[in-house]
Specification:
Layout lengths: L12 E6 L3 H12 L4 E4 L17 E4 L1 H9 L12 E3 L1 E6 L5 E5 L9 E5 H12 L5 E4 L4 E6 L4 E5 L4 E9 L6 H5 L4 E17 L6 E7 L2 E7 L5 E8 L1 H9 L2 H11 L7 E4 L3 E10 L3 E2 L2 E3 L5 E2 L7 H21 L7 H29 L4 H15 L2 H11 L8 H4 L5
Parallel strand pairs: 1-2, 1-11, 2-8, 5-13, 11-19
Antiparallel strand pairs: 3-7, 4-7, 5-6, 9-10, 10-11, 12-15, 12-16, 12-17, 13-14, 14-15, 17-20, 18-19
Helix pairs in contact: 1-3, 1-7, 7-8
């Protein structure tokens, strides 16, 4: 990290966003829609959706609050219905006992609990939305290789020797954030000793717009409904050795293993797409901001995927930081000042830590075979399922309809 240097040269943009994934692109779109000059730096070129032959194994379970954010920047309308998996119901049960809980959006008079959408579909929708904002400029393929802090700005050196200066730099460059490393921000990390295997499968029975999750002794297995009524995205969290053995199976053998693990709830597994696996870690940055720098999304935190909250937390980071930055800009304040950026950190860090801790607790609770714990968690599921007020609160909280939300997330824009 460089020391503060004297002023020199012109400022190229108000905000530079390193990382053009879903969270970075959403942040850029919010800021550019309000006229701020945004430089979006992404290391890879986009892949047109129409050239892709398979479903993307990486999907996001989007809450209604995330839908609001994507609608606000006009990205939602670019997600075709054929790519939008709506889930109106959710069923969660324990393979080790009778405990189960069921949620239905009709119970709280909402049209849906959320949506399952492929990562690349959301990405392309955001790219389309960004093309309408002339104050957003892409730099791709490009990567930030150096930073210099100056009195009124931060200067970036790119890997092609281009230089940029901005009033604020946002690290949205993922779990292995080079921006976080260059800023000297450390993280607290815990290895869950689990691997998530993901792929798309075809099922004999229709999913009925229901998201399902079965807690196995090895870890949770989720079937998430896609736009096709006979197609689901699966996330199977298990031990690294078991995940590797599943990856090595033939398609027929994998279908059989998956069908058995899910107790044939959707009948036979008739086909699968390409399989992928990634290790599961819990990580939280020691701080989210430094002078003229902020972290969002996976650059700031990583969470267990059992509740599908990772992308939603990142989009809430983006909407919150944008609200803070735009509010400061409207008041004529310096958007890179620590006092401004700490408003964002105070707002989001506690919310994210609470969700990280909760998901870690659920992982530990359902990851043990100790019979008193197994008995207690099954009783807890049964009792919660019979408590309407508690269930309704849980539903609304999971949907992002309650909590300390940024304005863009809490108010539905006009479709």
């Amino acid at each position: 990290m460089s020391s503060v240097l004297p002023m020199r040269g012109a400022i190229d943009c108000d905000v530079a966003v390193a990382g053009g994934g879903v969270v970075g692109a959403a942040l850029a779109a919010i800021l550019a829609s309000r006229g701020l000059r945004v430089a979006l730096i992404e290391r890879s070129e986009p892949t047109p959706l129409k050239t892709v032959l398979h479903y993307d194994p990486r999907v996001f379970a989007l809450t209604r609050s995330s839908e609001n954010v994507l609608r606000a920047v006009d990205a939602w309308r670019h997600i075709g219905k054929e790519h939008l998996g709506v889930f109106r119901k959710m069923s969660v049960w324990d393979a080790a006992g009778p405990g189960a809980i069921h949620f239905d959006s009709a119970e709280i008079c909402e049209p849906a609990l959320g949506y399952i959408v492929e990562n690349r579909v959301i990405q392309e929708a955001l790219n389309e939305a960004l093309s309408a904002y002339p104050s957003a400029v892409w730099y791709r393929p490009a990567k930030v290789t150096g930073l210099e802090w100056r009195t009124d700005r931060i200067e970036l050196r790119l890997d092609d020797d281009r230089r940029l200066s901005a009033r604020l730099l946002v690290g949205a460059d993922g779990a292995h954030s080079s921006i976080r490393t260059m800023a000297g921000i450390s993280t607290r990390t815990k290895d869950y000793q689990h691997t998530a295997l993901v792929c798309t499968v075809g099922t004999e029975r229709p999913h009925g717009e229901t998201a399902r999750q079965r807690f196995l002794s090895s870890g949770p297995l989720a079937f998430l409904p896609l736009g096709d009524p006979h197609r689901c995205s699966i996330v199977w969290s298990t031990s690294p050795s078991h995940a590797q053995s599943l990856l090595a199976l033939s398609e027929e053998a994998f279908c059989t293993a998956l069908e058995e693990a899910f107790a044939s709830v959707l009948g036979r597994i008739v086909e699968t797409g390409p399989r992928a696996a990634f290790p599961l870690l819990r990580a939280h940055a020691d701080c989210y901001v430094k002078p003229r720098l902020a972290l969002v999304g996976d650059a700031a935190h990583r969470i267990h995927p059992l509740a599908g909250q990772g992308a939603n937390l990142g989009l809430m980071d983006a909407a919150t930081l944008a609200e803070v930055v735009l509010g400061a800009s409207d008041k004529g304040q310096d958007i890179g000042e620590p006092l401004v950026l700490r408003r964002y950190e105070r707002w989001r860090r506690g919310e994210n830590l609470a969700m990280i801790t909760l998901m870690g607790g659920f992982k530990d609770l359902f990851g043990t075979g100790f019979w008193p714990v197994v008995w207690a968690r099954n009783v807890g599921l049964i009792l919660t399922d019979k408590a309407p007020l508690l269930k309704h609160w849980l539903i609304r909280r999971a949907m992002g309809l309650q909590g300390d939300l940024p304005r863009l997330a809490s108010v539905s824009p006009s479709p």
